[in-house]
């Protein structure tokens, strides 16, 4: 049974078990790259059937189940078991005492789960953490216990395409997380659209991305189920402790596809040594997906330069753009990304005009996130009038296609505003992304979040541009670890930056020297006065579950004097 005939991803799982029953589907490796666990397609299907049978016996169809397991085969089994039983899955990271529980508490209150999946060995600590959040009455079900009940038939329930498969909670970069209602049809369509853009690359995937995040779950695990290829996984902390392990696994297991946010690629550049690179063979990599917004040109060029000796090719660089409300994928480059040098003065007027490399004046390098995937349409509209804007003009990105989710769980008004937008010169309903960008030659260039845009001195300024300038101003500042935002002071908007120091610079850093360098760089590059800047220790910035900086939350923390300042502030 071919891919095109599948009705849900559960059909794809059954197809894989039928056609390749003994082939390994998912493999987990530890730091030395030795296998710790693996499962064949037939074994995976059998385990999913057992979990589904347990959930059906408990009358969980139509109810919600929190999946609070670490990245593991059991996580995948629990998620697919929910899908096969008609239970709405809610992926989260494992709650434990001592870890920030604010996000999980918000999800508990919104999703109102009937059962919580965990591993047997973690049952006690999960129970204690849930009790801290008012969830002491929730029923805990270990995946091992759920698998112990054997299914009575060979069939997996093939859910209706329009029924909700799971709730993907947004990263909360602007506000509290919202549960996106993703249907079985959405998941299949997203996998189909992404697969057409990736081609053969999805046949072999190596990933460290957490399974509670939409990239790790949909873009990695479910994509592997759709394509029928092998997926090699490692725990996120395995990568974060030693980034080389990810690329060593890619080299050993011949990965066609790698994926991660911008900071992951930067970690590889900054922490993998030349002698380690010399032992890698990355000629197998066809698609290295950079799923950040915006993608940084410097990151792409640095990664290519560092790993070209290992066989990595420019055409494997694949920046992309997506969001939970569109299940995951909106655009992705088909080959080497286009880069566009634009005049800063034009960007301030929300226009993108090509500038030559030797053109006088300040310029910015923008990176294309590629063209929309098949059957997906992207427009750029004015945020107020909702009128379509011409190419080269920056406005809000709106999207339509069969992968657009049903809406937000329990939030009708917000769903109508976000998912049922009607632009003035086109029929149909569109998804408002809240992201700013423009189309040039049919390719999408993302410039930032609408709510993050700063207007100072009558000109538009995009936080990522100012953050990049700040990082470049002094080597003591961590890459991708600055937050730029504006506050009101004497009835006008002024610029504030919060920046993490490199761990190696904590003892030798001279705050006054760093502040002077950043202030000078901001003035020269953006013609903006830096009102205040605070230096903080590594890991102190507020980030989303995928590592994106929560600028609005950082702004609130700054106003509430929450940050512990290293040295003095620019105003101090």
Radius of gyration: 24 Å
**What name is given to the CATH topology of the domain at 38-159?**
Rossmann fold
Largest sheet: 5 strands, mixed
Strand content: 15-25%
> How many individual β-strands?
26
Overall, the morphology is: globular
**Overall pLDDT level:** 90
Q: What structural category arises from helix and sheet content? A: alpha/beta
Number of helices: 18
What does this structure look like?
The chain has 572 residues and is of the alpha/beta class. It contains 18 helices and 26 strands. Helix 1 (9-19) crosses helix 2 (41-57) and helix 7 (184-198) crosses helix 8.
Structure summarized in a few sentences:
This protein has 572 residues and is an alpha/beta fold.
Note the topology.
Layout: H1 9-19, E1 24-29, E2 35-40, H2 41-57, E3 64-67, H3 73-85, E4 88-91, H4 102-111, E5 115-118, H5 123-132, E6 139-142, H6 143-148, E7 164-169, E8 179-183, H7 184-198, E9 204-207, H8 214-227, E10 230-233, H9 236-241, H10 244-252, E11 257-260, H11 262-271, H12 274-277, E12 287-290, H13 297-307, E13 317-322, E14 329-332, E15 339-343, H14 344-348, E16 363-367, E17 371-372, E18 377-381, E19 395-400, H15 412-419, E20 431-440, E21 443-449, E22 454-456, E23 459-461, H16 463-473, E24 477-489, E25 492-501, H17 511-526, E26 530-536, H18 551-559
Parallel strand pairs: 1-10, 3-4, 3-5, 5-6, 9-10, 11-12, 12-13, 25-26
Antiparallel strand pairs: 1-2, 7-8, 13-14, 14-17, 15-16, 18-19, 19-20, 20-21, 22-23, 24-25
């Amino acid at each position: 049974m071919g891919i095109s005939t599948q009705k849900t991803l559960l059909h794809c799982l059954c197809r894989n078990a039928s056609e390749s029953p003994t082939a390994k589907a998912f493999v987990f490796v530890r730091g030395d790259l030795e296998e710790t666990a693996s499962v064949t397609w037939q074994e995976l299907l059998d385990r999913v059937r057992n979990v589904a049978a347990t959930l059906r016996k408990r009358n969980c169809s139509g109810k919600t189940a929190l999946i609070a397991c670490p990245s593991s085969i059991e996580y995948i089994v629990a998620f697919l078991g929910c899908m096969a039983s008609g239970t709405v899955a809610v992926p989260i990271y494992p709650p434990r005492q001592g870890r920030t529980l604010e996000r999980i508490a918000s999800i508990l209150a919104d999703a109102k789960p009937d059962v919580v999946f965990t591993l047997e060995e973690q049952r006690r600590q999960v129970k204690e953490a849930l009790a801290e959040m008012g969830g002491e009455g929730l029923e805990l079900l270990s995946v091992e216990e759920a698998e112990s009940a054997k299914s009575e038939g060979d069939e997996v329930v093939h859910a209706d395409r329009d029924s909700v498969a799971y709730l993907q909670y947004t990263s909360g970069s602007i506000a509290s997380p919202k549960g996106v209602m993703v249907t079985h049809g959405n998941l299949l369509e997203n996998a189909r659209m992404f697969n057409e853009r990736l081609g053969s690359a999805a046949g072999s995937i190596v990933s460290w991305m957490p399974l509670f995040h939409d990239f790790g779950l949909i873009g990695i695990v479910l994509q592997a189920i759709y394509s029928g290829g092998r997926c090699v996984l490692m725990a996120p902390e395995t990568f974060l402790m030693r980034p080389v392990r990810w690329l060593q696994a890619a080299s050993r297991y011949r990965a066609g596809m790698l994926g991660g946010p911008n900071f992951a690629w930067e970690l590889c550049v900054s922490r993998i040594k030349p002698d380690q690179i010399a032992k890698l063979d990355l000629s197998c990599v066809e698609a290295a997906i950079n799923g950040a917004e915006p993608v940084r040109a410097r990151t792409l060029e640095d990664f290519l330069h560092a790993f070209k000796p290992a066989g990595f090719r420019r055409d494997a660089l694949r920046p992309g753009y997506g969001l939970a409300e569109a299940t995951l994928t909106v655009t992705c480059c088909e080959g080497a990304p286009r880069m566009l040098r634009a005049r800063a003065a034009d960007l301030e007027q929300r226009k993108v005009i090509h500038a030559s490399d030797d053109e006088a004046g300040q310029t910015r390098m923008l990176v294309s996130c590629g063209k929309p995937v098949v059957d997906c349409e992207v427009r750029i509209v004015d945020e107020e009038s909702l009128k379509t804007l011409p190419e080269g003009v920056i406005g809000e990105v709106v999207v339509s296609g069969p992968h657009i989710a049903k809406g937000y769980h329990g939030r009708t008004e917000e769903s109508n505003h976000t998912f049922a937008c009607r632009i003035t010169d086109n029929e149909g309903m569109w998804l408002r992304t809240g992201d700013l960008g423009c189309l040039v030659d049919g390719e999408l260039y993302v410039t930032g979040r609408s709510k993050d845009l700063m207007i100072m001195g009558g000109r538009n300024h995009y936080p990522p541009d100012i953050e990049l300038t700040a990082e470049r101003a002094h080597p003591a500042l961590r890459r991708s670890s600055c937050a730029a935002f504006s506050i009101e002071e004497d009835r006008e908007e002024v610029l504030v930056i919060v920046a993490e120091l490199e761990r190696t610079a904590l003892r030798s850093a001279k705050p006054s020297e760093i502040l002077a360098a950043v202030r000078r760089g901001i003035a020269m590059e953006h013609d903006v006065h830096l009102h205040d800047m605070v230096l903080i220790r590594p890991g102190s910035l507020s980030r989303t579950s995928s590592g994106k900086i929560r600028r609005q939350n950082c702004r609130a923390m700054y106003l509430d004097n929450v940050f512990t300042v290293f040295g003095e502030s620019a105003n101090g």
